Amino acid sequence: SSEPAPRKISKADLAGARRVITFCALPDDYPGSIKVENWDPFLPAIEDYSKARDKLAERIGRMLEELKPKQ
User: Fold this and answer.
1) Rounded to an integer, what distance in angstroms lies between the CA atom of residue 59 and that of residue 40?
2) CA-to-CA separations, 22 to 37, 50, 52, 69, in angstroms, rounded
3) 30 backbone dihedrals φ, ψ, rounded to 5°
4) Run of H or E residues at 22
């Protein structure tokens, strides 16, 4: 099976989002009330893939902990 082609993010994609992580700029018309974090500056994958992969895994782990329901 082939991978789907990348597509531009839409307002519908963002409608139920609590948080958005980007690696590039969002379109100017995105819904501005959503928390957006751009991780691109912290992940220099071209310079050092292994280091970028490890940083990304660490950030994802931290984000998942933050999103867990509080008990």
Assistant:
1) 12
2) 6, 20, 15, 23
3) -70, 155
4) strand 19-22
- For 20-62, what is each residue's pLDDT tens digit? 888 877 777 676 677 788 887 766 667 788 888 888 899 899 9
Residue 55 CA to residue 62 CA, distance in Å, equals: 11
pLDDT digits (tens, 9 = 90+) for 60-69: 999 899 888 8
For residues 54 and 5, give the distance between their C-alpha atoms in angstroms, rounded to a whole number: 26
What residues does 35 pair with on adjacent strands?
19
Question: Contact 54/33 with Cβ under 8 angstroms?
Answer: no
pLDDT for res 42: 66
